[in-house]
Design a protein that fits this description.
Elements lengths: L7 E9 L5 H7 L6 H5 L7 E7 L8 H11 L7 E5 L2 E2 L8 E4 L2 E4 H11 L2 E5 L1 H5 L12 E2 L1 H8 L5 E4 L6 H14 L14 H4 L3 H4 L3 H5 L27 H4 L1 H4 L36 E4 L6 E4 L9
Parallel strand pairs: 1-2, 1-3, 3-7, 7-9
Antiparallel strand pairs: 4-8, 5-6, 10-11
Helix pairs in contact: 4-6
The structure holds iron/sulfur cluster.
C-alpha cells in the first residue's frame, strides 16, 4: 500500500473588517481552483490550507468562533492573515465594532492583534489594500487599508495587496499557491502598489481588444456600442490588471466586453479619482503614468482633480 505523502498544513485566519463580503463571494466562486480545492483538498500537492476562521463559510458561531480569534492572538505557528474590508480608525476605531468573548472590540484592535502573530498578511480587495470605497472622500470613518494601518502602528509584516472590487479569484488563489510553494512574492515580484506583477504588471488598456478603436479615435457614443469606451469614462489607460485576458466568472466575461467602461477598481486611488464612473476624466485630471526613478517601473500617480472639473 502506497504511503501517504507528507502534507504540510498552512493555517489561515480570514478576518472581515468593514466590507460588503463581495470579495469573499468572488473567491468562493473561483472555478480553477474551486473552493473545495482551496479549503478541503490540497491547493497544491503536499500543501493544505487550514482555514481556521472565515465568518462567511465557517459553521461555528458566537463564542465558539471567537475563541479561535482569541487563540490566534497567542498562536506562534505563523498563520497567514487574510483581511478583506477597510479598517475604520476615526473615533478610536469605534465606527467598526466587532464581537469579542465577553464584550466587544474594534476591528482596528482586532486586526492589529491578529497581525502581530501572523507570518504574512494578504489584503484581499481594494478596501483592504488601500481603503477603497469605505475610504472615499470625505472618509468620515477614517478608513484605511491594512498596510497603512500596520505602518501607523509600527508593525512590520510582509503585506501583499490583491485589489479589485471584487478581485478575480485567480489573483487570490494564485498568490496563496505561490506563497505555499515559494513564500510570498518578493520585492522584485511586487509593483509599486504592493500588487503581484504576475496579475497587475500590465496596463489593462494594452490588453484590451478595443485598443484598435482607441488608436483610430473611434469612440463609443452609447453603452453597447462596439468601439472604445474612453469617452464614456473608461479608466483602462491607467489601470493595471489582466482582466481582458483572464476574464471573470470562469473566463466568461469582463467589464469592457460586457459593455461597461473599466472603473479602475484595482488602483490605489479608486474611487476618488475614478469618479464619476461613467464620465470621461479630462486629461488634466488623469493620474500621471511615469517611470519611477528608484524602481524603474511605470507607476500611476494620482493628482487632485481641478476644481473646474468637479
Ligand atoms: Fe482602453 Fe478602455 Fe478603450 Fe479598452 S475600452 S481601449 S481599455 S480606453
Amino acid at each position: 500500500m502506497a504511503e501517504n505523502p507528507k502534507v504540510t498544513e498552512h493555517p489561515v485566519i480570514w478576518y472581515q473588517a468593514s466590507a460588503c463580503s463581495g470579495c469573499v463571494v468572488a473567491v468562493l466562486n473561483g472555478a480553477a481552483p474551486t473552493v473545495q480545492d482551496l479549503i478541503v483538498d490540497q491547493l497544491v500537492p503536499g500543501h493544505h490550507v487550514s482555514l481556521r476562521f472565515q465568518p462567511t463559510v465557517m459553521a461555528g458561531q458566537g463564542d465558539l468562533a471567537l475563541e479561535i480569534l482569541a487563540a490566534s492572538e497567542k498562536a506562534t505557528d505563523g498563520y497567514i492573515l487574510v483581511v478583506d474590508g477597510a479598517i475604520p480608525t476615526a473615533a478610536k476605531g469605534r465606527f467598526g465594532l466587532a464581537g469579542k468573548i465577553g464584550g466587544e472590540t474594534t476591528m482596528r484592535e482586532q486586526v492589529l492583534a491578529l497581525a502581530k502573530n501572523a507570518s504574512a498578511v494578504i489584503a484581499t480587495g481594494t478596501c483592504a489594500a488601500y481603503g477603497g470605497i469605505h475610504a472615499a472622500a470625505p472618509n468620515p470613518t477614517g478608513c484605511v487599508g491594512i498596510a497603512a494601518l500596520l505602518k501607523e502602528a509600527g508593525i512590520n509584516k510582509p503585506v501583499v495587496n490583491i485589489p479589485g472590487c471584487p478581485p478575480h479569484p485567480d489573483w487570490f488563489t494564485g498568490t496563496v499557491a505561490h506563497a505555499l510553494l515559494f513564500g510570498l512574492p518578493g520585492p522584485e515580484q511586487i509593483d509599486y502598489a504592493g500588487r503581484p506583477k504576475r496579475f497587475f504588471g500590465r496596463l489593462l488598456h494594452d490588453l484590451c481588444p478595443r485598443r484598435g478603436f482607441f488608436e483610430a479615435h473611434r469612440f463609443a457614443k452609447d453603452m453597447g456600442d462596439p468601439e472604445c469606451m474612453y469617452e464614456l469614462g473608461c479608466k483602462g489607460p491607467w489601470t493595471h490588471a489582466d482582466c481582458p485576458e483572464r476574464q471573470f466568472n470562469n473566463g466568461t466575461n469582463w467589464c469592457v466586453q460586457a459593455g461597461a467602461p473599466c472603473h479602475g477598481c484595482v488602483e490605489p486611488f479608486f474611487p476618488d479619482v475614478c469618479c464619476p464612473i461613467y464620465v470621461k476624466i479630462g486629461l488634466a485630471a488623469l493620474p500621471q503614468i511615469r517611470r519611477d526613478q528608484a524602481s524603474g517601473e511605470m507607476v500611476a500617480v494620482a493628482r487632485p482633480r481641478p476644481a473646474e472639473e468637479n
